[in-house]
Amino acid sequence: MIVVIDASVAIKWFLSFKPDEDHADLALNILAQAAQGSLKLVQPPHFIAEVAAVLARLKPDEAQDDLLDLLNIEQRTLDTPEIHATALELVIRHQHHLFDTLYHAVALHTPGATLITADRRYYDKAKAEGQIELLAEWASDQPGEYTFERTIVPVILAIHEGEKLVSRSQAKLLIQGFEGFKHVILDFDGVNEIGQAFSDEVFRVFQAAHPDIIMAPVNMTPAVQAMVNRAKSRE
Predict the structure, then answer these.
(1) Do 119 and 8 share a domain, yes or no?
(2) Where residue 43 sits, what CATH number does that domain have?
(3) 52 with 156, same domain?
(4) What DSSP string describes 212-226?
(5) Domain boundary residue, one of 141, 172, 198
(6) For residue 37, with 0-12 CB atoms within 10 Å meaning exposed, 13-18 middle and 19 or more buried, which class applies?
(7) Are residues 134 and 177 in the same domain?
(8) What are phi and psi of 115, to 5 degrees?
(9) Is the Cα torsion angle 148, 59, 40, 113 positive or negative in sign?
(10) pLDDT tens-digit profile, the chain (235 residues)
(11) Which residues pair with 154 in a beta bridge?
């Protein structure tokens, strides 16, 4: 399935720690499916810049690391004169910002694609154009009832005072119970580094034993990302 994700959804990937961030779990579920390859992301050229600007405003201390995570997400960029022309038509017709209509125009010019947005104001204006779904409604329509088959794990909770996440025993404690879910989103927010043995146990050994479970790490520092990539490369 092909989806276009606008900034109102993507920013939730980096704000999942906030208890008042509506539908952050549903946005993370989309990210998990994209990481697994069951969803293909197609984006307008301004996507990275728009999300980065919001990160700089809301999370200035972590914005650089979050930007690296965003850049590591596999996505295809579409930028054609026809897309810009359609986006401008949508601006005029719905009196809405061009940055928002560009996402919709990419979906409209990509056969089988759907724009997923958390911007209800734009959705209410433009839903008659087609190929657009509100985040909450899109998630509830998908097969498999992902809402009941997913867990989000704040990895920082596995760290006891003075410890670092370096051992296989720590990893085994973390992954207890993962078998009961189809999607496991590992949120590394607040975790600066992990050890090779810890990463290998989670991302190679456990994943090899449970290939049907989607393991999606998010909010990684470059050091954590390097260890995860190293473990995955040995699969």
Answers:
(1) yes
(2) 3.40.50.1010
(3) no
(4) TSEEEEES--HHHHH
(5) 141
(6) exposed
(7) no
(8) -80, 125
(9) positive
(10) 899 999 999 999 998 777 788 888 888 888 888 887 788 999 999 999 999 999 999 999 999 999 998 998 889 999 999 999 999 999 999 999 999 999 999 999 998 899 999 999 999 999 999 899 999 887 545 554 443 366 778 888 788 777 889 999 999 988 877 877 777 888 898 899 999 999 999 999 999 998 888 888 888 999 999 999 999 887 6
(11) 187
Domain of residue 68 covers 2-141
130 and 63 within one domain: yes
d(CA 115, CA 6): 7
Take residue 219 and report the two structure tokens written for it. 């909010």
Token pair, residue 148, equals: 């009941």
**Alpha-carbon gap, residue 67 to 53, rounded angstroms:** 10
Q: Are residues 105 and 204 in the same domain?
A: no
> Which of 126, 120, 121 lies closest to 90, judged by CA?
126
Contact 34, 74 (CB under 8 A): yes
> Do 79 and 178 belong to one domain?
no
Cβ contact 35:69 at 8 Å: no
Q: Are residues 228 and 136 in the same domain?
A: no
Same domain, 10 and 107: yes
Strand 214-218, strand 183-187: pairing:
parallel
- Residue with tokens 């910002």, as numbered in its chain: 97
Distance CA 71, CA 63 (A): 12
Model pTM score: 0.64
How is the beta sheet containing 150-154 ordered, strand by strand? 150-154, 183-187, 214-218
